[in-house]
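Journal club side-thread
Mid-discussion, someone asked how the predicted structure for our own chain would compare to the paper's figures. Pasting it here so we can look after the session.
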Amino acid sequence: MSINTTLQSKMSPKAFHEDMHVAVWEWIREWCEVDHHPELSGLPQSPGDVLRWLIFKIGDCGGDSQDSMCPFVVEGGEEDWRGSHMFKFSEKMCEVGQRLDDEELQHRLLWRTMKEILEFYLHESTSYINNINSLGMSANDINRFFELGLDLSNDTYTVEEFRNQIIWSRYITSRKAWKFNLATRSFDTTCEASPELWAFWVRDHLDNLLVEMLDGMIREDSPRRVALEKEEQEKKNTALRKIQETLDEVKEDLDDGLFLQMMNLMKENYVVNP
C-alpha cells in the first residue's frame, strides 16, 4: 500500500467520530451539573435519566422513522426539537455533526443511529454502575481503585453526585477503561481509554446491530424463498409430466437413442418432494 493510499484511508469519514462522543458526554455532564430553573425541576437530572429522555425524544420527533423531515444530525436537523427543554442538545449535536461532515471526518449521522448510540451508552453505563455496586466497595475503595481523584476527606458528595463522578470518569476524563469479568465477578482488565477508543466501540456496536438486522432479514426471508422454489419446481414437474406423456405417444416414431436422451434430460430436472 502506498503512502498516499494509507493517508487517504486514515482520513476517510467514519460512521461515528470521537468528537461526537465527546460532544454527547460533555453536554450530558453540563446539563446534570447546572442548577436548573425551578420550572425544569421535573426534567431528568441523572445521566441515565437524561439518556432515557433523549432516546424517547428522538422517537417522539420521528427521528427513528423513515419519514422524518429532518433525518440527519447536521445543520437543520434540530428543527423537530424546537420548543423542547432539551433543544440545546440537538442544536449542539447538529453543530458538531455539520462540522464533521464538512471536514469529511464523519458520514452524515442519522437521528435513528444517534438513538442506537444513546441506547448503547445507557446500557453500558447502567451495567457499569450495577457491576460496581455488586462488589460492595466503600466510596474510598472506589475512589482509589478507579482513580477518580476525589478528595473525600474534605469534599462531601451525595450518592447521586458520587455516581455521576464515576460516569464522568469513565466516558470523559479517565485514561483507563475497566472491563468487568463475569467469570471472576471483578474488574480485572483495563485498557488505555480515549475518545477514539469509545468511538471505535460505538462503531463496533453499530456493526453488530447491522449484522443482527441482516441475519434477521435472511431468517425471515428463508421460508418464503423455500416456498417459492417449491412452487416453481412443482410447475416444472407438471410441465415435464406433460412432455413425458407426449413422448410416450410418439416414442415409436423416435430413434431409441434420442428417446433415451430426452427421458434422461427430464429425469435430471424432475425433483421429487422439492
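Post-session note: Confidence is low (pLDDT under 50) at residues 1-9.
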